[in-house]
Amino acid sequence: MEPISKTTSTVDMEEFQYDNTIVRNFAIASIVFGIVGMLVGVLIAFQLAFPALNLDIPYTTFGRLRPLHTNAVIFAFVGNGFFMGLYYSAPRVLRTPMYSKLLSNINFWGWQLIIVAAAITLPLGLTTGKEYAELEWPIDIAIAVVWVAALLNLVMTMVNRRVQHIYAAVWFYLASFVTVAMLHVVNSVELPISLTKSYSWYAGVQDALVQWWYGHNAVAFFLTTPYLGLMYYFLPKAANRPIYSYRLSIVHFWSLIFLYIWAGPHHLLYTSLPDWAQSLGTVFSVMLIAPSWGGMINGLFTLRGAWDKVREDVVLKFMVVGVTAYGMATFEGPMLSLKNVNAIAHYTDWIVAHVHVGALGWNGFMTFAIMYWLFPRLYGRPLFSQKLANFHFWIGTLGIIFYAVPMYWAGWTQSSMWKEFTEEGFLKYPNFLETVTQLVPFYILRGIGGTLFLVGFLVGTYNLAMTALSGKLIANETARAASLKSIWNPPANEFWHSRIFERKPVFFTVISLVAVIIGGVIELVPTFMVESNVPTIESVKPYTALELQGRDIYVREGCYTCHSQMVRPFRSETERYGEYSKAGEFVYDHPFQWGSKRTGPDLHRVGAKYPDSWHYNHMEDPTSMSPGSIMPKYPWLLEDALDLSTTPAKISAMRTLGVPYEDGFEGQAIADAQKQADGIVASLKKDGIKAKADKEIIALIAYLQRLGTDIKKQ
To answer: Where are the transmembrane segments (predicted)?
Structure first.
């Protein structure tokens, strides 16, 4: 709720205006990009059941569209939704317009240009290959500039406020800005070799730790804390009740931002990450239950005495389900960080269900709840149709259920089949494809669920559009308040949090940053500085020039979205794939490619497992080698010429990153690549396949045949 400044009749009131145009702009952007992102999501959901929907062209394959979907939903739909709520609520709780219209417009137009750049580059295969951080370095720089501009705008608005203390919603906005800025900058340190290509500065284990330190906390500080701030403002407004507990909001805020930053390693349990880092991530993940549920309780308890309104008010319906989904997801997350649970769920569709309960329920429903509350106030008209809004609520809820339940079931099915042995001690399902074909009905149901949610989205869009068309935007909303200087009169019994933090926005910003830096430093620094964290293996050598080119093709095609490269130390995995993965095997991997989902089998030990012809035929038509496969075809790899001209620059960049290529190797790299390619072509010819050495498929085969062959089989 908006804090009430103590004024007297002798205090001069200042008149100012809230800018609703920027709020409207972000709302429209959120809706438009949300539709695009969810259309792509429905398409890729059905691609897993019907591979023909990949259309046999490079720009529409699952591997390239999946990053487009995640970026569109997270950064375009949710990101614009956050900015929409921020630019409406922050000025009103601070009783002052945003500090700078210029910075607001830089935020808006810069963010939309970034989204458009992502929508162009990702289908083209221009990617860093790091989940949720796939955008290449020029776009990364733009993100940092726009984000810092928005942070500066918020901080200066806090400085210029007309209230003595700062309301809880703004605390969460502030923490989101400072933490995402830190995460983005650290994770995006990369070495460019051209305008559209770069290599991660980190390698292997370190890259994996930095990536999931970023990846987990991108969920925390982009999808969670900003929307908690929105909840603290819009839920009390919609319920016409004050927030349940100010003191609980303090505990919720500080414990959440301090603990969340440590939890990233739980994405890497049973991998080659050092055990101490895995354990640290588990401990702090379990601790997160308390502050996460503290926020949920603060939201739901705000409705005490107002539950009768929930039956009639569609805004509150969306909010209640949204906050409940937040509670479910933030209970399940810590449970998934327990090693015994993670051993079952990781790499399965269980994780997909978990993520979408949060994304669709928490972010999706909260966004529309806010829009349904906002649009009548922005346009001075009641909502066009309560019936359509209620239809949206119910079909959206049904969509979430149809999406999540089959994915949970699919996850259990996958894990059970992967781990099952016969009485004689052999894998019951040694062919990985046997587990995949069992999942197709679940994927169809998931696609139906996504379609239902999208139908609700479209109905909601129509409802909001008709509301807007029936009224006129109140572009500038006039308000009056006394200046902070004229009303400054802190009470004698002022609460400590108000005195220490809420009076001092710049200090508040710095301490919030310190709170999130601590966990990151303690986790990351030892992994980089203590050599025993990544023991080297003498037999592990740098990739050849052709293998390096093939690896870049593998990254470009998004193969990591369906395949892992991490054999965990489980009997079921060593029986299926071979020797478990060692930290020292990845020291030259920029970026790492451990993956987070196994729609297809793990590939870390695939090298020398099949002849070159198998890989050639498999990429041309996966079903020719694996009947029933849901993998898309890659015919362009057999036709497109391999550009070896970039090889010297790539070798030079790798040497800069610490890969021990011999001096002068750049000069002979192209010749070496051509020689290795000729050997693969000769191998293919023996199996009756006529291929040319200058095609991309040859480089990809070279890379695949190298995987996992650097260590002796135990």
So the answer is: 26-50, 70-90, 102-125, 137-159, 166-186, 212-234, 246-263, 283-302, 314-331, 351-375, 387-409, 443-465, 506-529
